[in-house]
Amino acid sequence: MKKYLLLIAGMLCLIAVRAQNSLRSVYSPDKSVKIVVGLTPKTGEPFYTAWFAGKPISSGKLGLKGKGADFSQGFSWKQTRTAGSDQTWKPVWGEVATIRDHYKELTMYLENGSGKMNIRFRAYNNGVGFRYEFPDQPLKELAVTDEVTQFTMTADHTAWWIPGDWDSNEHVYTTSKISAIDCSSYAKETAISTKHIVQMKAVQTPITMRTANGTHISIAEAGLVDFSALHLEADTKELTFKANLIPSAIPDVKSVNKLPFNTPWRAIFLSKDAAGILNSKLILNLNEPCKIEGDLSWIKPQKYVGIWWEMHINKSTWDYAGSQDASSFNSVLKPTGKHGATTENTKKYIDFAAKHGFDGVLVEGWNVGWENWFGKWKDEVFDFTKPYPDYNIDELARYAKEKGVKIIMHHETSAAVPSYERQMNDAYAYMNKYGMNSVKTGYVGKIIPKGEWHDGQWMVNHYVRVAERTAQYKIMLDAHEPVRPSGLQRTWPNWLACEAARGQEFNAWSTGNPPEHETILPFTRILGGPMDYTPGIFQIHVNQFDPNKKEQVHTTVAKQLALYVTLYSPLQMAADLPENYEKRLDVFQFIKDVPVDWSDTKILEASIGDYITTARRQKGTQNWFIGSITDENARDVSIKLNFLQAGKVYEATIYEDGPGADWEKNPYPVNIRKIQVRKGQVLPLKLAAGGGCAISLTTK
Ligand code: NOJ
Ligand code: CA
Predict the structure, then answer these.
(1) Which is the catalytic residue, given 170, 452, 505, 518?
(2) Active-site residue 141, yes or no?
């Protein structure tokens, strides 16, 4: 045995000597991606270059700096190891039924005066992942002050980005050259209640780019757990992005980690075209498998309606008592009569959901606290087990059960996180008691405790804690205003969706979302995970109840239907009011029919910021659904139906922009027609400016 160990030790020494100061590389399984790594000769700084299709794409320094410890230089290279994996796994829900996880791996084992650090690289055919690993060693804790990781681009690519706001991701995207990145105009945005933009050249991830020859690159993050979010600081002259970790309340410290630990993955999507970015499962593959044990049948993709849009368009309010001081709520307060979450109104939504086959009814404004919530930065605003006096929760739980509908719980925390943490168990037990199995959380406001940020480590840990805790109570989760997702839905599939971007609501009370917005989201924010965008607005002008409201949703009605296919989510809202759907039941039929779980997905064509056409096969059937959307330009589309099953006749119901449709001047016309189609046929479509088309293809 001793001899054997000596032999191994001897071999390891040999490898170590060979590895010193030399380059090492690893190719992806089909060799299209290559990663070369090394240490700079004198200073011992780790670096990498990622290649795609024979060309260098991204390169730079690697490492972390900490208080009293420096893991960015002075390294000697102990050894490297290569490995590989080819496995197929099944997500609990998703865009496809099975996912192949196929990569080659190379790990650098490094050591310097501060200790040991490994850098693990994975080369996929469509991208790169790498992370820092800190094995067990004398150092017990690392207070990270900086991550030196760089992504130096080889030319001034076109980039789609939002500012590196520490507190919000609810921004309109900018399309610019890397050299033109400048966030100063974002600082003027007034519709976002909480934002913190202090670095004028910092951007969020994922940031997606297109090179002059059409190669698409996206820099992203996977598996963000117990670390602060990865933003990037752009050096617009050197065309370099440097890791920019969001600070914490501890001066100069970005993240505090007990050893052993691994950082989240840094990921680079690589594709010869835009569609390849959307087809990539890189982020999911870099995440840990499902951690929820036992039966998972309680996790269900779902469609819902809710008492929600009516508050955003001033039909009703979240609060019960208006501006009366309700710091200690009691029923002496006088109701304003505008409260939305009443027993009667909720029953109306439950009836509508039951009649049209929706799974859930979201009710916002049901609990005490809303008189005090907005912009006050105070703790203990909400009570998550105390309904307003006009919301009879016992009766509504009974009624919803009778109608076969679930009430979706709403927990607006106003970012008073300690207060939410104190109430979490009671709040989830309360949901269990009333048969509610989904919660929408919200974090509008500046974070309590002071000094923490929506994208910092402290909050990252909170969001994950909520996912874990809700799973313990068999509750599904939809988080609004969290850090943008990084694929954790693989590990916590009860975490159905997040907002974490500029959603539909901005169309109700701000300059809104430009028509191109929904053609950018899938290439950026949604790469990390599903978005609760809340499509389905039919009443495009939002002055229905408040004549002073001048806003309109920047869309045609047909485009609203198409979004159910192009914006993937296992949780989709039909966001408009029941009365607006009742007026157009023929158009509403598509929202009733469209599934929220899929066996297969085909991106038929895509150009970031311009258009996307997506076809998806309903899970467990041969039915397909197509969504096609465009930006502010009208567009002719030819859809080749070569994905249909051979030999079958499909009934296609086409919901297209009607005569004269235009997002700005005439958003309402929808033409509905039915035709029979077969595999191989070509379907020509016309999309209006800011328009879209939705198609259901059913077969027996
Ligand atoms: C912002 C959320 O995004 C929105 O959906 C919600 O209605 C409000 N906060 C109130 O919680
Ligand atoms: Ca929001």
Answers:
(1) 505
(2) no
